[in-house]
Amino acid sequence: MEKKAIRDTYINYWLENGRRPVSVHTFCKQLDLPEAEFYYFYASFDALERDIWLAIFQETLQKLKEDETYRSYSVREKLLAFYFLWVQHLREYRSYILLQKEKHFAPGLHLDKLESLRLAFFDYIRDLIKEAHQTGEIKERKFISDTYVHGFWVQALFVLRYWINDNSDRFELTDAAIEKAVNLSFQLISSNTLDSILDFGKFIFTRK
After folding, report:
1. CATH code for residues 45-206
2. Does the CA dihedral 130-177-157-68 come out positive or negative?
3. How confident is the model over 67-118, as pLDDT tens digits?
4. Residues forming CATH 1.10.10 domain(s) in the chain
5. What is the reported pTM?
6. If one looks up domain 1-42 in CATH, what number appears?
7. Is residue 73 classed exposed, middle or buried when 0-12, 13-18 and 19+ CB atoms within 10 A define those classes?
8. CA 10, CA 23: separation in Å to the nearest integer?
9. Residues 6+ apart with CB under 8 A from 5
10. Structure confidence by residue, pLDDT tens digits, 14-26
């Protein structure tokens, strides 16, 4: 039994029953899988749910890395491409995700479900930021640049929550929100705007 088969069966259980399995034991009976084998892969259903989010992210990243056009993009364009493809992959799991929302397991209420995704996203963003420093797309700022990853994670959560609540045709509003959010973030950290804000904050702080 592979992890993907366990994830797929778990998602199908949610879709058919609208809730978690009562226990790992009953879930494994449905899979015809020894409990010990489940615990070889996952310590709990929480760990399994974290891996579902991580797997969607990894599938998205793998597809991007296989695309020659993506490799030629600017960093801003790469991030846009990531978000567009990510929400496209999320559509395949939308019914499961909406059930999670209804049961109050949606991102925002239980961010621990996204912890594995967050760590993987940080690695991805750090690589993009490093590339952007080299190309000059993002200005490198002492003590500040290391915090960019947290800002981009907030952006990723915004995109995810917006998509979850988006009822527009073909999720056109999500696409527009992605473009505006990415463009705004790059305008802020690549221009002198952020420097002006930091200088003003320093001025106010030193005058207190």
Report:
1. 1.10.357
2. negative
3. 999 999 999 999 999 999 999 999 999 999 999 877 654 454 467 889 999 9
4. 1-42
5. 0.88
6. 1.10.10
7. middle
8. 12
9. 31
10. 999 999 999 999 9
Distance (Å, whole) CA 115 – CA 67: 27
**Residues of CATH 1.10.357 domain(s) within the chain?**
45-206
| End-to-end Cα, the chain, rounded Å | 63
